[in-house]
């Protein structure tokens, strides 16, 4: 079976579990995935939402939770690889990166913006870094910037396609005509750009394909396009080990394709989410923000349509009608609970 090498470490099943916040992928899920031979990813987005300090000092709560959940995940991982997903759009982005490095994160995956300074924040550490990109142009611009300023390149790349969940690096127009994007060809173009930098730096830069990966057949298709591995998120939500509430998991099980909406996120990017009472309220008008948790760098509480921290934490706790439920495009194909072990075995067949 194909393996995934990231630096000196090896994932025996080339599956990265995508980071999902707030609170959907923390130590329990990430540790379980790593134990099964994949790479488990913790989302740092308001990761400390259930820490006692969160209401009064969210920065301290998040820093504490990053350290705690990485430690717990590594205990569960039995030597497997554990990392974090950190959104560039976070106000405390640099601090989250440094906290993750200090806590021993094996990898940092970074998107929802351009991680231009990521190499600076991990300098001197063994933590491997990967940007999330959606086009050949974005890949070239970022890798050229890293080469010029830091004389280094990415340790691996995550290509996130238009079927992914959460925040999306595409316009609404592109998302309305996914088939018209010919994204397979875009993946090939991105891989070609990455290969140029790999040759220049005399190193392997693995390419991971994400977005809409549901079956072993999808995995095989990604590999046939030239991918070294895949990133999967939505299917891990309905595992026994996922950190979200059971009500959140049930929303995924009962959600249908025609309930998916492309929304405007306060982050400033389109997002894919499940229709519910909360989105109906948003459609009727702005939901006033009562308290600011300082999560996003470019956030004006008098202008944003709603507080994304409040919306996401309500959902993950189980108030699925009054919270925001991000999801991938294939959620309608999810019908029952499973386990991380069974899901990893299923997806792994795509690499045989």
List keywords for this structure.
352 residues; alpha/beta; TIM Barrel; 8-stranded parallel sheet; 3-stranded antiparallel sheet; 13 helices; 13 strands; 38% helix; monooxygenase activity; oxidoreductase; Aldolase_TIM; Probable nitronate monooxygenase; FMN
Walkthrough of the structure:
This protein has 352 residues and is of the alpha/beta class. It folds into two domains: 4-245 and 334-351, TIM Barrel; 246-331, no CATH class. It has 13 helices and 13 strands. Strands 3-11-10-8-7-6-5-4 form an eight-stranded parallel β-sheet. A three-stranded antiparallel β-sheet has the order 9-13-12, with no helix packed on it. It has a two-stranded antiparallel sheet with strand order 1-2. α3 (93-102) links the parallel β5 (81-87) and β6. α5 (136-150) runs parallel beside α7. The longest helix has 20 residues, at 58-77. The model has no long low-confidence stretch (mean pLDDT 95).
Look up the CATH topology of the largest domain: TIM Barrel
Radius of gyration: 19 Å
What order do the strands of the largest sheet run in, or round the barrel if closed? 3-11-10-8-7-6-5-4
Report the mean per-residue pLDDT as an integer.
95
Binned, the helix content reads 25-40%
Low-confidence stretches: none
What would CATH call the architecture of the largest domain? Answer: Alpha-Beta Barrel
Q: What is the N-to-C succession of helices and strands?
A: EEEHEHEHEHEHEEHHEHEHHEEHHH
Structural class: alpha/beta
User: Any idea what the CATH superfamily of the largest domain is called?
Assistant: Aldolase class I
Count of strand segments: 13
Sheet with most strands: 8 strands, parallel
How many domains?
2
Instruction: Count up the helices.
Output: 13
- Beta-strand portion reads 15-25%
N-end to C-end Cα span: 5 Å
Shape: globular
Look at the structure and give the CATH class of the largest domain: Alpha Beta
């Amino acid at each position: 079976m194909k393996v995934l090498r990231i630096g000196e470490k090896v994932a025996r099943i080339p599956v990265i579990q995508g980071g999902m916040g707030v609170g959907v992928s923390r130590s329990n899920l990430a540790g379980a995935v790593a134990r099964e031979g994949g790479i488990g990813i913790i989302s740092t987005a308001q990761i400390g939402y259930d820490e006692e300090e969160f209401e009064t000092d969210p920065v301290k709560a998040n820093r504490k939770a990053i350290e705690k959940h990485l430690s717990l995940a590594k205990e569960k991982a039995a030597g497997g690889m554990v990392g974090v997903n950190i959104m560039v759009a976070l106000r405390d982005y640099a601090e989250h990166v440094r906290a993750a490095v200090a806590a021993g994160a094996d990898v940092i995956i970074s998107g929802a913006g351009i991680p231009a300074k990521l190499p600076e924040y991990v300098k001197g550490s063994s933590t491997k870094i990967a940007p999330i990109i959606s086009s050949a142009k974005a890949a070239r611009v970022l890798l050229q910037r890293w080469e010029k300023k830091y004389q280094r390149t990415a340790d691996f790349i995550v290509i996130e396609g238009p079927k992914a969940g959460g925040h999306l690096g595409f316009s609404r127009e592109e998302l309305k005509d996914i088939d018209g994007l010919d994204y397979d060809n875009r993946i090939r173009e991105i891989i070609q750009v990455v290969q140029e930098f790999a040759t220049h730096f005399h190193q392997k830069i693995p390419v991971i394909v994400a977005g809409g990966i549901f079956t072993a057949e999808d995995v095989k298709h990604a590999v046939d396009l030239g991918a070294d591995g895949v990133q999967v998120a939505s299917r891990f939500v309905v595992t026994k080990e996922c950190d979200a509430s059971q009500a959140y998991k049930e929303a995924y099980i009962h959600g249908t394709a025609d309930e998916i909406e492309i929304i405007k996120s306060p982050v400033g990017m389109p997002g894919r989410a499940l229709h519910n009472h909360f989105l109906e309220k948003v459609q009727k008008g702005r939901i006033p923000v009562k308290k600011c948790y300082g999560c996003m760098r470019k956030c004006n509480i008098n202008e944003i349509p709603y507080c994304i921290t409040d919306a996401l934490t309500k959902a993950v706790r189980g108030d699925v009608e009054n919270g925001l439920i991000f999801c991938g495009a294939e959620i309608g194909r999810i019908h029952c609970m499973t386990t991380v072990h069974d899901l990893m075995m299923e997806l792994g067949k795509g690499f045989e």
